[in-house]
Design brief:
This protein is α/β, with parallel strands linked by helices and 327 residues long. It has 13 helices and 9 strands. A 5-stranded parallel beta sheet has the order 7-6-5-8-9. Strands 2-1-3-4 form a 4-stranded parallel beta sheet, sandwiched between helices. Helix 2 crosses helix 13. The longest helix is centred in the C-terminal third of the chain and has 21 residues, at 306-326. The radius of gyration is 19 Å and the shape is globular. It starts with 18 loop residues before the first helix and ends with a helix.
Amino acid sequence: MTISGLKGRSLLSLRELSGDEIRELLVKAADLKERTALGVNVPALAGKNIALIFLKPSTRTRVSFVVASTQSGAHPEIFNREDIRFGIKESVRDIARVFGRVFDGIMFRGYEHATVAEFAQYAGVPVWNGLCDSYHPTQVLADLLTLRENFGDLEGLPLTYVGDGRNNMAITLAIAAAKLGLDLRILAPKPLQPDPEVIKELLAGRESERTRVLVTESPEEALSGSACVYGDVWVSMGEEDQTQERIDLLRDLKVTSDLMALTGREDSIYLHCLPAFHLLDTETAIAHPDIREVDDEVFEGAQSRVFDQSENRMHTAKALMQLTIAG
């Protein structure tokens, strides 16, 4: 599959890509992953320079883009929040134009979506959203590659997201569902369900028997026949003051073996974008033991693909950079 229309383009939410373009990215990522396993790297970005901007801290985004850059032959340069003080002494658009004159591509991990969108508007080179408060497209590309590896064709594949249905992961998965024809179920209590108008807008003209986004608070309805159960933390960055409220709302939706069994499928897998609370081995979990959104038995069990998924962040980042910079 070759569409060759991605060169020079940015990735801000997945909305800007067609279903075929997402599939092209996944095919490219799978090919690059296979080559990497054979010890063969494709230096398609030799001589290029990549800026990695982190207004929010990161583990997987940082390691995936650094390794993807170097394996592609490019030089990555990391900028933390204190290095670039947007809006304090210099505007977003001015900084974007400086970076665009020097770098060949820019990964931007920040807060408001409007900021990354403005940065992309003025940079003049591909900008990839490594996470913002509204969307997480580079994570969902890795999720889709993981699903493709386990189930092949994604069209009509039933996938259940469990947790805060309003957050950047749930909404970006809904965009992917609309673009690729997934059967997405969002299992969330009423106060944490996405805006129905947002879902309606995403699905406009796309909904069918196999393509849908079902929002429900019924575990049985959400999980029946599902190929994948997708977990996420209950409290996103910046919402720590709502920790107890989220625990109270979501404690009955903790992913356990019993909840996984509701899929009725032996081949169901478990995914999580990480970090995950599954043991009492972090300061946060020790302070709030009930914050654990998944049992360790599931997280470490045979159905878990979370570390395949994490690795795929690097392969999809590599495909994204190579296709948008080199074509």
